[in-house]
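User: Just a sanity check before I run the rest of the batch. Below are the structure tokens for the first item. I only need the designed sequence back.
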């Protein structure tokens, strides 16, 4: 029975009714070695009557055995359960303890202070609403204090209490307290802003832990317990966009089909429009079911079953989101990782990624930088060692539906698991979609090809071929005549005695780009590889005719930068969608309508026409020969053809 239960005044039903509706606060204690984290928790358990008499007797016996407090009861032993912890007087593993007061219920994670156990500290912090950072008043802000401050900030813990402990050993000096407070505020000013509180205390003797103390008349704030009882939590989770990862499809009979899961953020009501991500299918909430009956509203962090009005395909790993505030979907993400394994992380390593209820193979494509948690400096590295924190780029086999971690922790956190041993290798915080930086890598060509001068100079090639090198990008919707026009242009140049090479999207996808699909990222990569090829062709003095849909304007601009603005000509084959549908030589539009093909430019994938192309060709109005002649005139005007 709970030590706080008084049988003379309480019945079991009254006791349970009084306690079951309390708000739950999850917090962790962290800080440097021997700053008093376990002692603080032990003091809280003792002074709030959260331990039994036999537990206290056992602690007193172990205190005499290990002699950590000179024969006095060492309350830290209530938390340090491992034999090695008791013998050394340190915390190694994360220890979870539960206690409650008349105002709140608490789950506290006591995390280790040693640098070598930083990974354990990060694990304990991942689900907490509040961080309690202890500082030894004798030593002030240490390296490990700063390290834990940074990690709790990276993990998105929105509130922090800096408990300046062992004030009895500095005679409750106000100057010492104010100096440590100023040092910490100066360091934390370089981190994202969050709610901060400071409290002096002596965890060993109990001053300002549960009640106020006459030893610090200059301190007018609340005690530590009063602070954690009154600090506001929970509201932010319900103010964000609605997110619920699907954990289970519930189908007890033919008339009921619900999607079970825990709401990670926001609220939902019957009638709300929602989307199933990553597919993006939209529907409306019909019912919100629980074991106790249907609800009119449900919010984070409640577990419910959502019934939709439409028969929509969704399964474990999908995410139900607000239709007005959808999440990000991508198979390439940027994340901050806390590396937790002795083996070094290097680019190219493959893992199993667990994100909410989604499990997918993945690989670390690139390690962008490592964060020095002592100085907050970031530096480029080619690997991460145990307990190091770094920013990486990850590619997944299955697209993830996510939010940046700082916005919604539930859909912004992940872990990497070893594919064979199934042990956790890293904890990660998603920062966003990976920007496509492959366009910045230019191929080695021309005089830089092998570090030697080119045996044939550009001037000699121009004289021989009668032309300057250039890339002519023919862009437009499928069916606008790009490919046919490219073939006719190559023939016309050949008849003029010039030399050209022709590339088109279909041909490239049969060979070099056979591994690419038709998503936005794959379309960008298809054009990038083709433009790398076009640049090599230009470096040999040849003209490259490239026929690609290239629907995204920013990607076409990157193509111009890669090839070289002075070599790049953009020709827009501006046939409208209606004309392309009616022509439909390849049957693409008909197949999209009958088979539900996705990512078709002009249909369900926006085509962004060029704002200022070098040449605009209304190919639905012009004869092909006339279009070719206009391109040849452009090449002569720009000095491409001599």
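Assistant: Here's the designed sequence for the first item:
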């Amino acid at each position: 029975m709970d030590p706080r239960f008084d049988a003379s005044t309480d019945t079991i039903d009254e006791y349970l009714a009084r306690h079951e509706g309390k708000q739950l606060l999850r917090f962790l204690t962290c800080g440097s070695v021997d700053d008093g984290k376990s002692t603080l928790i032990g003091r809280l358990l003792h002074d709030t009557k959260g331990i039994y008499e036999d537990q206290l007797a056992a602690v007193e016996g172990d205190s005499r055995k290990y002699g950590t407090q000179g024969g006095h009861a060492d309350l830290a032993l209530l938390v340090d359960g491992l034999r090695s912890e008791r013998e050394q007087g340190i915390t190694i593993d994360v220890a979870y303890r539960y206690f409650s007061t008349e105002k709140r219920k608490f789950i506290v994670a006591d995390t280790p202070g040693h640098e070598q156990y930083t990974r354990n500290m990060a694990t304990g912090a991942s689900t907490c609403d509040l961080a309690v950072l202890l500082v030894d008043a004798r030593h002030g802000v240490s390296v490990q204090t700063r390290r834990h401050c940074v990690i709790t900030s990276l993990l998105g813990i929105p509130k922090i209490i800096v408990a300046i402990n062992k004030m009895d050993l500095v005679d409750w000096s106000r100057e010492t307290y104010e100096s440590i407070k100023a040092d910490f505020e100066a360091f934390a000013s370089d981190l994202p802003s969050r709610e901060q509180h400071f409290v002096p205390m002596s965890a060993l003797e109990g001053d300002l832990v549960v009640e106020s103390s006459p030893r610090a008349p200059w301190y007018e704030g609340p005690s530590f317990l009063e602070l954690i009882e009154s600090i506001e939590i929970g509201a932010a989770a319900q103010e964000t966009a609605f997110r619920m990862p699907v954990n289970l499809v519930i189908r007890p009979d033919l008339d009921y089909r619900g999607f079970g899961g825990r709401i990670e953020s926001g609220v939902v009501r019957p009638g709300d429009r929602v989307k199933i991500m990553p597919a993006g299918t939209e529907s409306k909430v019909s019912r919100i079911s629980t074991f106790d009956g249907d609800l009119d509203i449900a919010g984070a962090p409640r577990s419910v079953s959502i019934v939709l009005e439409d028969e929509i395909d969704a399964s474990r790993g999908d995410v139900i989101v607000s239709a007005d505030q959808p999440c990000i979907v991508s198979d390439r993400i940027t994340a901050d990782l806390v590396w937790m394994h002795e083996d070094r992380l290097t680019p190219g390593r493959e893992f199993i990624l667990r994100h909410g209820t989604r499990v997918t193979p993945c690989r670390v494509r690139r390690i962008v930088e490592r964060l020095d948690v002592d100085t907050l400096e970031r530096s480029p590295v080619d690997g991460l060692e145990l307990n190091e924190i770094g920013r990486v780029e990850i590619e997944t086999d299955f697209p993830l539906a996510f939010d940046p971690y700082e916005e919604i922790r539930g859909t912004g956190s992940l872990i990497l698991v070893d594919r064979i041993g199934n042990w956790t290798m890293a904890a990660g915080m998603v920062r966003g979609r990976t920007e496509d930086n492959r366009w910045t890598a230019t191929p080695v060509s021309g005089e830089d090809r092998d570090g030697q001068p080119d045996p044939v100079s550009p001037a000699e090639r121009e004289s021989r071929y009668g032309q300057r090198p250039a890339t002519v990008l023919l862009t437009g919707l499928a069916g606008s005549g790009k490919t046919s026009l490219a073939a006719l242009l190559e023939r016309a140049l050949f008849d003029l005695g010039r030399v050209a090479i022709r590339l088109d999207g279909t041909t490239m996808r049969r060979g070099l780009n056979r591994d690419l699909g038709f998503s936005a990222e794959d379309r960008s990569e298809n054009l990038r590889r083709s433009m790398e090829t076009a640049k090599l062709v230009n470096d040999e003095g040849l003209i490259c005719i490239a026929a690609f849909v290239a629907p995204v304007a920013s990607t076409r601009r990157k193509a111009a930068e890669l090839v070289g603005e002075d070599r790049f000509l953009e020709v827009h084959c501006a046939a409208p969608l209606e004309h392309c549908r009616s022509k439909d030589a390849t049957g693409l539009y008909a197949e999209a309508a009958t088979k539900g093909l996705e990512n078709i430019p002009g249909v369900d994938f926006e085509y962004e026409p060029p704002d200022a192309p070098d040449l605009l060709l209304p190919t639905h109005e012009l004869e092909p020969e006339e279009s070719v002649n206009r391109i040849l005139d452009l090449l002569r005007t720009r000095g491409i053809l001599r």
